[in-house]
Amino acid sequence: xxxxxxxxxxxxxxxxxxxxxxxxxxxxxxxxxxxxxxxxxxxxxxxxxxxxxxxxxxxxxxxxxxxxxxxxxxxxxxxxxxxxxxxxxxxxxxxxxxxxxxxxxxxxxxxxxxxxxxxxxxxxxxxxxxxxxxxxxxxxxxxxxxxxxxxxxxxxxxxxxxxxxxxxxxxxxxxxxxxxxxxxxxxxxxxxxxxxxxxxxxxxxxxxxxxxxxxxxxxxxxxxxxxxxxxxxxxxxxxxxxxxxxxxxxxxxxxxxxxxxxxxxxxxxxxxxxxxxxxxxxxxxxxxxxxxxxxxxxxxxxxxxxxxxxxxxxxxxxxxxxxxxxxxxxxxxxxxxxxxxxxxxxxxxxxxxxxxxxxxxxxxxxxxxxxxxxxxxxxxxxxxxxxxxxxxxxxx
Length: 396
Hints:
six-stranded antiparallel β-sheet; 12 helices; alpha+beta; 396 residues; three-stranded mixed β-sheet
């Protein structure tokens, strides 16, 4: 019996948003179930005056972070890095790592590396940015491993420099050779060569800032300078199809399959599971757990009310793009909106869409177990959030 969902609710909600034109100009959504691509849709305008296709590539900001996390997990699995080894000896020029900062602290956002922020670093010449991070200092009284504050920029560049120091390879080349290409993510880039940029440019979409009265396209995202910068924190380009493929590969590996280039299932599970207690995060402005480079317990991160307890993922650009995996459903999802809106609107949009997606899965009979909610097929997009308060308007 064919149980492939029709995704009627999901697509209806996307069409409604595009018709209203208040929150985005275009959208991509891709869904894998059990490693099979069952939905691959693109709607609306790419931000360039042409229609979005599944092949269009967008800057997805912090949604790209887990690519670097997987590269780190490979090195931990190989014994080249240790989660609880102090990092100051490996990166001695970074005074901010003194005092016992470990890889675990950096990956769980408990290292006190929340400053400088990304917008601050854009004002710094590229050749001076490492020195700017090196000069940063932890807030007075910061408790390593206990206090939490999401690091938008610094922590992920520390991870990139650590990978380069450990492997002797430029980060862009390492991520391409050891993560992206082996997983078949050919449309994903964390830094492009000039040749790659020229090849990708015809299908580069643009995000639109819709937080004010009029929307304006963020055209800098299509510039060669920005596209060719290797920025593991918030400079990745990809599409929904590749995001779903990435998380589908991680699910396959967690189940004991997948390419051997990925870390062993037990190591990968450590990265994709909660690695810090559910505590208040000073930057995200909410209580939440976090894995080793992945958002975990996704209801804490406004991914809706239906994701299973083992789900993991990440979001970016104030929630415009996001992707996640739900092991209990063998479900991998990638979603890209090219409309940048305020935090509360983005979180409401994300919850509504993810809840509609799960309602479609239930209606098709893919629900694990017999007692799942929404088996009647009702649209739960407006259901109250579990444990997530919009009074806490976290950044992602």
